[in-house]
Amino acid sequence: MRSRNSMICVLILLLTSAAPSLADAPTDGSTITITSNESWSSSPTLNGSVTIASGATLTIDSNIDIATSSSITVSDGAHLIIDSSSINAQEQMVWLAMDDISAQIIIPLQGTGGDVTIKFTFKDSLGENNLKAGFTGSELTTQSGEDAQFTTNLAQGVTEVSINLSAAGWLAVKISEVDIVESGTGSNVEDIRSLQYTGLKAGAEATWSLNVMEGGSLLSSQSSISDVDLVCFGTCTLNQTTMQSFEPIDLSNSGIITLIDSNLNGSITDEDIKRLPGAEVNWDETTTGSGGYTDRWVIERSGQKINTTLPGVMIQLIELGYWNESKTVTTDSNGMTTLPTRIIQWMDSSGEVHNESARIENISFNGASAWGAFTGPLGLLGSDDITLSLDLPMISVMSVEIDDESDANVGDSVSVTAKVKNDGAAATIKLTCTDSSGADVRTSPSYIPVEAGAQSTTTVQFTWIQDSSGEESITCSPLIPSAFENFQNLVLTEQSSANSSSMKWIAPADSGTNMAMWLMAAVIVGIGALLAFTKKGGEVEEEAEESLQETEEAEEPETAESEEEVEEEDS
To answer: Is the pLDDT assigned to residue 401 strictly greater than 70?
Structure first.
């Protein structure tokens, strides 16, 4: 410890080797920049904004109050030294907040004895049934409203009394003032943070800010600083320094803080120091923190990115951060998701370091349900940005072969065998086929199902029906789900389709044409028969006419003879 203090003294000497000029802090709300070494040795109230420029050193070796919203900024290359000083907010807003369901406060007394009344004033009015309280050893009674009073009679010489608290809604219990009436004399506890208590935590509002930028430095020795929002992106050393009622010291990813025999008492939140990966905390064993449930330091991870090869991938995470939370996230259109800020490592109030054990419990992609559901590797999440792969199918169409390449008639069906290889995860895919012009062809079934097992080759048979004649072949390829449309390289090899050999399709004789030919032949035959019949009928008619003529000629003499005979008889 002696050697460490010696080093700090050397550092102070180096930083103050150039004699600083005496000056005062601004008190009128103005903004100033310190460009050369300067020392504040009086005790004013700082009201305004002060920036220490690169190459300059500001030394504060007096007690200073800081007005609300004032600030000190240490630039890159600048230095701030606080030596044997007390720097406090001009208007302190502090309280004791219960951080457990039960608590106890010890109140110091003058020891005069007699009636003693203790009054608690609450920061926020309490509702009914939130709090029960009373002197230790007595029955606890229900308290509500803006304050609570407890009265007892004590013997002379009793120098302290304790009050127990029990709360259902303990987070709402915040004591902002403690008043004591002892033997008729009243007094107020000036700083309630100075009381002894268990189950409570000092709280406050940080009313001013101290910003040490990257490349700047702060050295505080044998001093106290309160009600501050301290940002240390540069180098900060607190030696025998007490901090009270402060925002967690923020180191971001660049700050380095060293704490030597110091006391961080009363972080406003649940950690004394917070940092991102890359920052550094050196906490020696003589330094104490706020204690209780307040961790000494935490490392936060902000903006961790998980990348995947596809959008819409669901990732289930468990045991995230300080509270071992579970969360399911989905990748965006770029295949990425950003995790919210979480605590990945912390040192508790007893000095034990803990690490989160976040794991990837499940990865699933259901966007291509026609092919199946796909998963990815599981395991520890870690804190770095990561890229997760998915176990996807990797399809090749190795061949398409016609089982019988003999000529076939248009409209007939031929049997075809396709061979599909899958070098990835199992999938149920479908093939679709086109002809040499790229037009869809008729197959049965229309979409050919293939159970493509993982790391296997599968053959499938189907029939091909061609509706036009000529030489033709078919090309078959997988039917791609829309989710893979823009990511075909993830699921298809370069051999994503295969062609069959060419075969000849013959058009059979047209039945309509045959009927016409038969009708035409029948007509010709009929006409021929009719002509033949007509010719023969003419000949018969001529013969009949000749026979009739001969008959008439033969009958004419006989008629004449008969007429003569009749005349003779008449005569």
So the answer is: yes
Q: What is the pLDDT of residues 492-548, one digit of tens each?
A: 999 999 999 999 999 876 444 445 554 565 666 666 656 655 555 555 455 545 544
Strand-pair partners of 327: 317
Please answer whether residues 472 and 466 qualify as being in contact, where contact means their C-beta atoms are separated by less than 8 angstroms.
Answer: yes
Tokens of 322: 């300080």
**Contact partners, residue 497, CB within 8 Å, separation at least 6:** 397, 475, 476, 477
Residue 58, phi then psi, degrees to nearest 5:
-105, 125
Which of 192, 291, 296 has the alpha carbon at shortest distance from 249? 296
Q: The pTM is what? A: 0.74
Return the SS3 of 490. Answer: helix
Q: What would the two tokens of residue 297 be?
A: 């330091």
Sheet of strand 48-52: strand arrangement:
30-34, 48-52, 71-74, 208-212, 228-232, 249-250, 271-275, 295-301, 342-347, 353-355
- 508, exposed or middle or buried, with CB in 10 Å at 0-12, 13-18, 19+? exposed
Burial class (CB in 10 A: 0-12, 13-18, 19+), 237: buried
Alpha carbon 195 to chain centroid, angstroms = 46
What tokens were used for 1?
């410890």
- Residue 538 to residue 358: CA distance in whole angstroms: 118
DSSP state of 280: E
Phi then psi for residue 490, to 5 deg, are -80, -20
Neighbours of 473 (CB within 10 A): 16
Other CB atoms within 10 Å distance of the CB of residue 37: 19
Reduce the secondary structure of 214-238 to three states and give it as a string. Answer: CCCEEEEECCEEECEEEEECCEEEE
Cα–Cα distance list, 22 to 37, 70, 330, 526 (Å): 9, 21, 61, 141
Q: Give the span between the Cα atoms of 402 and 488, in whole angstroms.
A: 27
CA distance linking residue 384 with residue 387, whole number of Å: 10
